[in-house]
Design goal:
By secondary structure, the chain is of the alpha/beta class. The chain is built from 13 helices and 24 strands.
Length: 480
């Protein structure tokens, strides 16, 4: 059996693990990365964020052509469109391969040794990996756990055949005639909307009383209106049952039985941390419910064992895992943030890197898109010390020029009445995902309304709505 010793051992090659590996390599740490899951890039790159956005993009293009064929749009007419989904999927797979190769090249550049195989820990610092070339035992001074998450399977709707998770939905070779989506969260709605644009009849079954229940109603109403306008069946407050003979059993909110015809059933009821099958129980780390418990350094209860990404809890977002991976690499290497170094110089005490973001912005790539960063109305309900200001995209020239002004979209800011410090920023509308980084940046920098108002925003852009919402909070919006 081959024996390997390393300074750092990383388990999982998703956005948390591979970023941690690259940063460790950049900092000169002898690093081994074990990849036993979806491939380099993990769920996000291979079967999640990237391929789903590719399919969503293709679906939007198809819808545009279909509108042109159904009487014309903007003076543009076209013949009746058709789609070969297998070719679309092949294009999507090409994007994934290109990004896989890019991650592999970056890891090689950083001198990270990548081992393909499933790790199994015998203790906190030792794992065994069965590879194509034989078994390997790896021991390390530091271990970074980045095993990610997996789709939740319902016992009465097990994956297989015509019941699928998002992974299988992204690799279909044909558009299903009738698709039922179980779960009205962001994954189900993103894919359900995409397949509706591609021509499928779509029904959504959600236990809550409305879609996207983690977001406030003002943000989700434009999405609900799109679903209604495009003939998507919504069964809210409903419970899915078994599937057979081309029909899904559903119990409505009134307790009535219902049978919904379906060629495919897409189950998107959430994701859970991938904690089983690799020896976590032998590592002696503390848990926080289903997640691995960490502190603000991403350290577990076992010395020099760290955890990042979906394994550590909500929000389960790729960019959170990447940021955590960077922090851990820099802690192991003895690096400090500029803030920490400044604090140490002032106080004479030691400081370490921390994972303590002001916000982690989230985006739903629905139709229209939703962005949320910081506090929302539900978080400040009942408080009288908060200013809330909304500016509609219908009053933004760029939105009108790209057909993004008629779906009820807006940008909303929440700020403290006393010092005008921004507390939260949300938006709903077409293409608003591209505003998310600006929202997060302002919150992270501790900006006040006057900071946003004082920035000359480029015209014509959707970002002007952020400017105008801040001006409106100060009492002097220009274009409303």
């Amino acid at each position: 059996m081959q024996q390997i010793k390393a300074k750092v051992l990383i388990i999982g090659a998703g956005t948390g693990g591979y970023v941690a590996g690259i940063r460790c390599g950049q900092l000169g740490l002898d690093t081994v990365l074990v990849d036993g899951g979806d491939g380099l890039g993990g769920t996000c790159l291979n079967v999640g964020c990237i391929p789903s956005k590719a399919i969503i993009h293709a679906a939007s293009k198809f819808e545009t052509v279909a509108r042109a064929a159904a009487g014309g749009t903007l003076g543009i007419t076209a013949a009746s469109p058709a789609i070969d989904l297998s070719q679309t999927v092949a294009w999507k797979d090409g994007i994934v391969r290109k990004l896989n190769a890019g991650v592999a090249a970056l890891l090689k550049k950083s001198k990270v040794k990548v081992i393909k195989g499933w790790a199994n820990f015998s203790d906190a610092k030792t794992c065994h990996v069965d590879t194509a070339d034989g078994p390997i035992t790896i021991t390390a001074e530091h271990v970074i756990l980045a095993t990610g998450s997996e789709a939740v399977e319902l016992p009465f709707l097990p994956f297989g055949g015509d019941v699928m998770s998002s992974t299988e939905a992204l690799s279909l070779d044909a558009v299903p005639e009738k698709l039922v989506v179980v779960g009205g969260g962001y994954i189900g709605l993103e894919l359900g909307i995409a397949f509706r644009k591609l021509g499928a009849q779509v029904a959504i079954v959600e236990m809550a009383d409305r879609i996207l229940p983690l977001y406030d109603k003002a943000l989700t109403d434009p999405v609900a209106k799109w679903l209604e306008k495009h003939g998507v069946e919504l069964h809210l407050g409903a419970r899915a049952g078994g599937f057979g003979d081309g029909k899904l059993s559903v119990t409505t909110r009134d307790g009535e039985p219902l049978q919904i015809e379906a060629n495919k059933v897409l189950v998107t009821v959430g994701r859970r941390p991938r904690t089983a099958g690799w020896g976590l129980e032998n590592m002696g780390v503390a848990m926080a419910g289903p997640f691995v418990k960490i502190d603000d350094r991403c350290a577990t209860s076992m010395r020099n064992v760290w955890a990042v990404g979906d394994l550590t809890g909500e929000p389960m977002l790729a960019h959170k895992g990447s940021a955590q991976g960077e922090v851990v690499a820099e802690i192991i290497a003895g690096r400090e943030s500029a803030q920490a170094a400044s604090g140490r110089a002032a106080s004479g005490s030691a400081h370490e890197r921390r994972f303590d973001p002001v916000t982690i912005a989230a985006v739903c790539f629905t139709e229209p898109e939703i962005v949320s960063a910081g506090l929302g109305p539900l978080d400040v309900e009942g408080r009288d010390d908060v200013i809330t200001s909304v500016f509609p995209l219908a009053a933004i020239g760029r939105a009108l020029a790209i057909e993004a002004a008629d779906d009820g979209g807006f940008v909303r800011v929440l700020a403290s009445k006393t010092d005008h410090r921004l507390l939260g920023i949300q938006a709903v509308g077409q293409h608003v995902a591209e505003l998310s980084n600006s929202f997060a940046q302002m919150l992270e920098m501790g900006a006040v309304l006057e900071d946003v108002a004082g920035v000359i925003h480029v015209h014509p852009t959707l970002g002007e709505a952020f400017h105008e919402a801040s001006l409106r909070a100060l009492g002097h919006a220009i274009h409303i």
